[in-house]
Specification:
Oligomer: single chain
Radius of gyration: 32 Å
CATH superfamily of one domain: Histidine kinase-like ATPase, C-terminal domain
Length: 604
């Protein structure tokens, strides 16, 4: 019987190995740039011709190689990183140069030029189709340049699958973005023919690098995040909620500086944004994950595009909590414009977390436990609450929110913010560094949501018993839902029971504000909870559904005049919540106009 199993020739084996590493020009660029970064480069230059099909050149100023290492790097299974199989579990760099250069050279013409600082002369090695065709001395500065020409010249079937030069160039650009983000201290440049496509300076911060890549306007919508637990650390940039939108988003994740994909971590990010953005909105994120050695397996994907965390649940929980805590701060508040270097509203509080760190923004404590100097941190220094002067004075008086002289003896002796109601819908507050506009409905919605969630967690609350209970006639579906939710509705303040047939009777109601329409709120809640809405569908459980619906329906509406005490109470309650800058729909509760922006608008 004729033998059917054969040992493949080296040329064929090399091309098979190349198929695992080299799919298109972008694959080549990835391997060569990662090698440059592993070599400690501070400058990486990439040149393409015909989208990389004709030529790819990657030059760096890294440590370079001595001649012996340069020749070994062109052999299969040669590496500077791996000694035993155990080392595969904790490779701290992008790769281990085991197959990249020989795989690339097996399907192209390669020139490797390199010099280590310890040698006075460099080395040039030439390879064609996997065969070394020449080695010679070369005068050059320390570093490495790899030139790849005629990609797939000896594999025409694979060459036919390459796209147009424009498409292949775009793939290279997209491939470089995460590498540029992971290394803002490194200068990167990309040229295609005679066109410069990328030129990023070195030594920048992550935020500056984002601005260089995606534009200064986007950069100003991002905010820093950082969290740590059980030896794991998450840090990076997330998008301010008011800037997030539906559809496409950029999401860059890194572990140990290596870009990777992980849908579960992005879902954890989205959970962190819950109730601060509308359903379906997708904030942009750039997050770095650092874990102890052995806590992540980077070899679960052929191109290391995916990883596996030993404690996946713990990692997801840390990401969610890190995002959530960042959104509690003032930096997450909406702004009129996004200008670099602007200060905040000046609202500062101490809010210890598990590690005793200081939260960037906290609601103002009550005047009884504040000193005059502390109050000055977040409020205007003027201790008098009064109407604004000038053109806005009449408008303010018509809204009924100005403070009369007779009111002054009932106000705290310490400074309070000056408040005005604008068009019976917004509250304007003068703060340390400008003006804060508060949407009275959105703000009250956030306050009520957190109050009801606290009730659900057993913190209690008050209801108002009705002298004359009211009855509500419902459809069968609504009636069944009310009875199913009777316990939650009762804890929310609605004491309800079946009254026979399709009718329920309500004995007690919450009292969120003097203008509250209890029966109207109850009917609207039942309708929304029965038939659903985008809001309640975004809730993670029945408790949140009831709380969200109640907060939306019970909150003070736009068009409702508020007196000074009502505005002050709403202001204080808002900044006592965990997420004061966002309502439960994900809309902003406040918009900030800084003093610097005012001065620019008036040409000062």
């Amino acid at each position: 019987m004729r033998r059917t199993i054969q040992i493949l020739p080296d040329a064929v084996a090399n091309q098979i190995a190349a198929g695992e590493v080299v799919e298109r020009p972008a694959s080549v660029v990835k391997e060569l740039v990662e090698n440059a970064l592993d070599a400690g480069a501070t400058r990486v230059e990439i040149s393409l011709q015909a989208g990389g099909k004709r030529l790819i050149r990657v030059s760096d100023d890294g440590e370079g190689m001595v001649r012996e290492d340069a020749l070994l790097a062109l052999d299969r299974h040669a590496t500077s990183k791996i000694v035993s199989a155990e080392d595969l579990r904790s490779v701290p760099t992008f790769g281990f140069r085991g197959e990249a250069l020989p795989s690339i050279s097996s399907v192209s013409r390669v020139s490797l030029e390199t010099r280590h600082a310890s040698e006075g002369i460099g080395t040039r090695g030439r390879v064609r189709g996997g065969t070394i065709t020449g080695v010679e001395d070369l005068p050059r500065t320390p570093g490495t340049t790899v030139t790849v020409e005629s990609l797939f010249f000896n594999a025409p079937a694979r060459a036919r699958f390459l796209r147009t030069p424009a498409v292949e160039t775009r793939a290279v650009s997209e491939l470089l973005i995460p590498l540029c983000l992971a290394h803002p201290a490194v200068r990167f440049s990309l040229e295609s023919g005679s066109n410069s496509l990328l030129d990023l300076r070195s030594g920048t911060s992550l935020a500056q690098r984002v601005g260089e890549l995606w534009g200064a306007e986007l950069k100003e919508t991002l905010m820093e995040v950082e969290g740590e637990a059980a030896g794991r650390r998450v840090h990076g940039l997330i998008q301010r909620p008011d800037a997030a939108g539906p559809g496409f988003r950029r999401a860059a994740l890194f572990v140990g500086g290596r870009p990777f994909r992980e849908a579960a971590l992005l879902r954890a990010v989205d959970r962190g944004y819950r109730t601060t953005i509308p359903p379906g909105h997708r904030p942009w994120v750039v997050l770095f994950v650092d874990v102890p050695p052995g806590e992540v397996d980077v070899n679960v994907h052929p191109t290391k595009a995916e990883v596996r965390f030993r404690d996946r649940n713990g990692m997801e929980a840390l990401v969610e909590e890190t995002v959530r805590r960042a959104l509690e701060g003032e930096e997450s508040a909406a702004r009129f414009t996004s200008e670099p270097g602007e200060g905040g509203t000046g609202l500062v509080r101490e809010r210890p977390d598990a590690g005793g760190s200081r939260s960037p923004v906290s609601p103002p404590p009550s005047p009884s436990d504040q000193s005059d100097s502390q109050m000055g941190l977040f409020l205007s220094a003027d201790p008098v609450v009064r109407e604004g002067g000038g053109a806005g004075e009449g408008e303010a008086a018509a809204a009924g929110q100005g403070a009369d002289v007779d009111d002054m003896d009932t106000l705290p002796s310490l400074a309070r913010p000056r408040l005005w109601q604008i068009h019976k819908a917004w509250i304007m507050a003068e703060v340390r560094d400008g003006i804060l506009l508060i949407d009275q409905h959105a703000a009250h919605e956030r306050v009520l949501f957190e109050q009801i969630m606290a009730r659900f967690q057993g913190e209690g609350g008050e209801s108002q018993r009705l002298l004359f209970p009211f009855t509500v006639r419902l459809t069968r579906a609504e009636y069944d839902l009310v009875l199913d939710l009777a316990g939650l509705l009762n804890r929310a303040g609605f004491e309800v029971e079946g009254f026979g047939g399709d009718t329920v009777i309500v004995h007690a109601v919450p009292n969120p504000h003097p203008h509250f329409d209890a029966e109207g709120c109850f009917r609207e809640m039942v309708d929304e909870l029965t038939h659903g809405s985008e809001l309640v569908r975004s809730a993670r459980n029945q408790h949140e559904r009831v709380a969200m619906s109640y907060a939306c329906k019970a909150a003070i509406k736009a068009g409702q005049p508020l007196d000074l005490r009502e505005m002050q109470e709403l202001f204080d309650q808002l900044f006592a919540t965990e997420l004061p800058f966002h309502d439960v729909h994900g809309r902003p509760t406040t918009v900030r106009l800084t003093r610097g922006e005012l001065e620019r608008k008036f040409g000062r």
